[in-house]
Design goal:
By secondary structure, the protein is of the alpha/beta class. The chain contains 12 helices and 21 strands. Bound molecules: 5'-O-[hydroxy(phenylacetyl)phosphoryl]adenosine (DLL).
Length: 454
């Protein structure tokens, strides 16, 4: 398989970097290494101010708190947070477009929005101070990932209403890097510019990074021999297997970055060079992990839904926002010296969970099985259909070879692996090379053909 062939040269490149003296780098050492006790004091101070501002300026927060007979002064400890009501995505839709802003629209510097597949978009706003904080946190995240002032940062996140493009852009500028504002698409050109401009850092969704790798290989450009060293990948779930695949094919270290527009955009949490969980920036956000059914906190280390409260956002303060993202949190010390908690890689969203004959499955679990299997490329789609009262799953995989006579064997083998590793019975269809659609941003992993409920 291709990965195996590429591995030795990649290893040589990593070895070279390992020899070069590299100082650990903090963008904001004081904030990042603050002792946890001090961090908690800062959080409480900021929480009180943020809840007060939300109560005074956003009708929804005020009404919900009043319904629970809560006033801002009732928040006296971080534990009191649990008394506060949750906020959900539909609250933003129901108050479309500006109904949840705590500042007059005229005073805002920027709006972003996420399209969503159904209904109205969710609109988010930023004051000038919010934009400064975001750029600082994204610069901090990039430094945490190993990016340095002077680096060429090739930014292939989409520019526009999506927060990825501008979020990474201003973070990189704030850090002192040279940004190439590519956006997504025109992949052949991306490949040439990454090589010719000497990018050390690639920002993209993991699925688009893989698309770039594939186009480079097809064009005969060896990006492993380029100056690329770091990938800052996020905005969609991806598996550890996908990380290894991208690292081998682009010859870089793939770092996971997390964020969501309702809370800020990219830069809410990021891996450090240890690649062992994503540091969530607790001086600006309060993280909770709850049981999605009961709404109660889970024990430290257990999986649950991530809930975030903003501590410094002016235009759009969020109280206990239910992200729907599933993860685990840990406050154990990290080798990098940062004291902020670590979130485990996001396995998927609650909404993405498929229930196939009673078995709960996330698309990323299937991805982890598919990547690395001989004979298939790391591109796939899951198709959901309803037969009678049952949901049926078909996994469309892409063969690396055009020899269709080999496809039945591939299908049987993949089916067997999915059954034994994920525990679900899925039909498998092998497609010709290039037939599974490639992504330029967030990949579409699921095609849901089930009839819509009225
Ligand atoms: O995706 C912000 C972003 C841009 C993050 C660039 C990272 C890099 P939204 O479009 O609002 O914002 O989508 C947010 O994407 O709730 C997760 O479900 C998913 N997501 C984001 N980052 C990750 C990640 C941006 N690293 C939604 N791993 C979130 C898994 C992620 N899922």
């Amino acid at each position: 398989m291709m990965t195996a062939v590429l591995q030795p040269r990649y290893a040589a490149k990593v070895h070279e970097h390992a020899r070069a003296p590299r100082r650990r780098h903090f963008f904001d050492r004081e904030a990042e290494t603050m002792p946890r006790e001090e961090l908690r004091r800062l959080q409480l101070k900021r929480l009180k101010a943020s809840v007060k501002a939300a109560y005074e300026n956003v009708a929804l927060h005020r009404e919900r708190m009043r319904a629970k007979r809560l006033r801002p002064q009732d928040i006296r400890s971080l534990e009191d947070l649990r008394q506060l009501p949750f906020t959900v995505k539909s609250d933003l839709r129901d108050h479309y477009p500006f109904g949840m802003f705590a500042r007059p629209r005229e005073t805002l510097a920027r709006l972003h929005a996420s399209s969503g597949t159904t209904g109205k978009p969710t609109v988010v706003g930023y004051t000038r101070d919010d934009l400064r904080t975001w750029a600082d946190l994204m610069a901090r995240s990039m430094a945490c990932a190993g990016v340095r002032a002077g680096d060429v940062v090739h930014n292939a996140y989409g520019y526009g209403l999506f927060t990825g493009g501008l979020g990474a852009h201003y973070g990189a500028e704030r850090l002192g890097a040279t940004v190439v504002p590519m956006s997504g698409g025109a992949t052949e050109r991306q490949v040439l510019l990454i090589r010719d401009f000497g990018a050390r850092v690639l920002c993209a969704t993991p699925s688009y990074a893989l698309n770039i790798a594939e186009v480079a290989e097809r064009e005969g450009v060896d990006l492993r021999a380029s100056r690329l060293e770091i990938g800052l990948f996020g905005a969609e779930p991806w598996s550890e297997a996908m990380r290894r695949e991208i690292e081998a094919r682009l010859g870089l270290k793939a770092i996971d970055v997390y964020g969501l527009s309702e809370i800020m955009g990219p830069g809410v949490a990021v891996e450090c060079e240890a690649q062992d969980g994503l540091h969530g920036w607790e001086d600006h956000f309060l993280f909770e992990i709850i049981d999605p059914e009961s709404g109660q906190p889970v024990a430290e280390g257990d999986a649950g839904e991530l809930v975030i409260t903003t501590l410094t956002k002016q235009a759009l303060p969020m109280i206990r926002y239910r992200t729907r993202d599933i993860t685990r949190a840990s406050t154990t010390r990290c080798a990098c010296g940062r004291n902020h908690l670590r979130l485990q890689r996001i396995t998927g969203r609650n909404d993405d969970m498929l229930i196939i004959r009673g078995v709960n499955v996330y698309p990323s679990q299937i991805e982890a099985v598919l990547i690395g299997l001989p004979g298939i490329a790391p591109h796939y789609q899951l198709v959901l259909e309803r037969r009678g009262s049952l949901d049926e799953l078909t996994v469309e995989v892409e063969a690396t070879d055009e020899d269709v006579l080999a496809y039945p064997e591939i299908e049987a083998r993949v089916k067997h692996h999915i059954k034994s590793l994920v525990g679900v019975s899925a039909a498998v269809v092998a497609k010709m090379p290039g037939e599974v659609p490639r992504s330029q941003g967030k990949a579409v992993r699921v095609r849901d053909l089930r009839p819509k409920a009225r």
